[in-house]
Design a protein that fits this description.
- Pfam families: Chal_sti_synt_C, Chal_sti_synt_N.
- Belongs to the thiolase-like superfamily. Chalcone/stilbene synthases family.
- InterPro entries: Chalcone/stilbene_synt_C, Chalcone/stilbene_synt_N, Polyketide_synthase_type-III, Thiolase-like.
- Keywords: Acyltransferase, Transferase.
- By secondary structure, the chain is of the alpha+beta class.
- The chain has helices at about 5-25, 60-65, 70-85, 95-100, 115-140, 160-170, 190-200, 230-235, 290-310, 330-340, 345-355, 360-375, and strands at about 40-45, 50-55, 90, 150-155, 175-180, 210-215, 240-250, 260-265, 275-280, 285-290, 320-325, 390-395, 400-405.
- It is globular and about 65 Å long.
Length: about 400
């Protein structure tokens, strides 16, 4: 039965009032309606601590600092690992001055978790603030236009969380809708993007600030013969934060970078013990399956084939790639398993070389390098000239996460 004239008129008035509220002050209390188009990265930028360490001199620095130069065999093994990483330098919050003031952090298995947490709850939001301010400046709209915040980190644990601290640092509205993602591991940045995508597409007019920050503060451990996994982590990891503005239906004054057309993940059966991190009295300890990079590389083609069955898209050699900077062994394995030409991973290799393994933030640093490389090459798109690309994260589970991106004209 058709509605009566009065009821139909009432419905129209109600809908108009809802749209007026939606298009007005979007303060978290307005009517929620879906957007028309896909979520789009409208701006992004990174931040790193000012102190950095060159990889070629890092073994001498670390063993001197920890008073371990008498362990010559262990130092030689660590130097071998550092030389094989593909890293030139890494940025860290933990400077020599900070470590000397807190010797428990660089004393093997000394109780230090309280010191580490007290430090991380301050430094993680600050690094997020720096990245966010740069992204917001590029975006060109006022901070009051941000409606949602998604914050991801494996490097801080506290309540209230880093999301609330960052909200206050940036002066976001009290009605900002926040999501805090802890312990996402090395695919954490992909999860942050996936959540931001869903928020942007299901809330018309939403502008989501998506932030991922990682640091070595919780996981910094002095070298020891019994902790080879930690030795590998010490040779790879660095500190950094990345921030993105994500929203659908870009306004004329916004300059889109990438459309997020699909996001999904899978985990490999019987691999839940391949990547494990546990918080102990001595910090966040790591345990890695020796050949985990090979496991990921061997299973990635099947996963991406399944993704292609859902989203379509061109062949892999006609796409751009940005992925977790887990080390040169991982990049080499993925290149070989997908039969990719060397230049496909150049942006990711640059991110690895200049920043190291940034855990959850790694793949977003790699995407930022794709953006910058596109400018340097004078490419027609933000995807190094290609129209479509994959953003790949790998973490505990073993979890493989993929976002299918469409680049935008430059």
């Amino acid at each position: 039965m058709a509605p009566s004239g009065d009821l139909a008129a009432s419905a129209v008035i109600s809908e108009q009032n809802g749209l007026q509220r939606l298009n007005g002050n979007n303060d978290g209390r307005s009517l929620q309606m879906p957007a028309k188009g896909p979520a789009t990265v409208l701006a992004m930028d990174i931040a790193v601590p000012p102190t950095y360490y060159l990889q070629e001199t890092y073994p001498d620095y670390l063993f001197n600092l920890c008073n371990l130069n008498h362990k010559e065999a262990l130092k030689a093994k660590f130097k071998f690992l550092c030389d094989k990483t593909g890293i030139r330098k890494r940025h860290m919050i933990l400077t020599e001055e900070v470590l000397k003031a807190n010797p428990e952090i660089c004393t093997y298995m000394a109780p230090s978790v309280e010191t580490r947490i007290n430090m991380s709850v301050v430094e993680i939001p600050k690094l997020g603030q720096e990245a966010a301010l740069k992204a917001i400046k590029t975006w060109g709209r006022p901070v009051s236009d941000i409606t949602h915040l998604v914050f991801g980190t494996t490097s801080s644990i506290d309540m209230p969380g880093a999301d609330l601290v960052l909200s206050k640092l940036l002066g976001l509205k009290p009605t900002i809708r926040r999501v805090m993602l802890y312990m996402g591991g090395c695919n954490g940045g992909a999860a942050v993007m996936r959540v931001a995508k869903d928020l942007a597409e299901n809330n018309k007019g939403a502008r989501v600030l998506a932030v991922c920050v990682e640091s070595t503060i919780l996981g910094y451990l002095a070298p020891n013969e019994n902790e080879i996994d930690e030795l590998v982590a010490a040779a790879l990891t660095g500190d950094g934060g990345v921030a993105l503005i994500v929203g659908a239906d870009p306004e004329p004054n916004e300059k889109p970078l990438y459309e997020i057309q699909w996001a999904g993940e899978t985990f490999l059966p019987n691999t839940e013990h391949a990547i494990v991190r546990r918080l102990t009295r001595a910090g966040l300890n790591s345990h890695l399956l020796k050949h985990v990079a090979g496991v990921i590389a061997a299973n990635l083609p099947k996963f991406l084939t399944e993704v292609r069955e859902v989203v379509g898209g061109p062949s892999w050699d006609e796409m751009f790639f940005a992925m977790h900077t887990g080390g040169s062994a991982l990049l080499n394995g993925v290149e070989a398993s997908l039969n990719l030409p060397k230049d496909k991973m150049q942006a990711t290799r640059t991110a690895l070389s200049e920043y190291g393994n940034l855990q959850g933030a790694s793949l977003l640093f790699a995407l930022n390098e794709v953006r910058l490389r596109s400018e340097e090459l004078g490419s027609t798109t933000t995807g190094e000239g290609w129209d479509y690309g994959y953003l790949l994260g790998f973490g505990p589970g073993v979890t493989m996460e993929c976002l299918y991106l469409k680049s935008c004209p430059r």
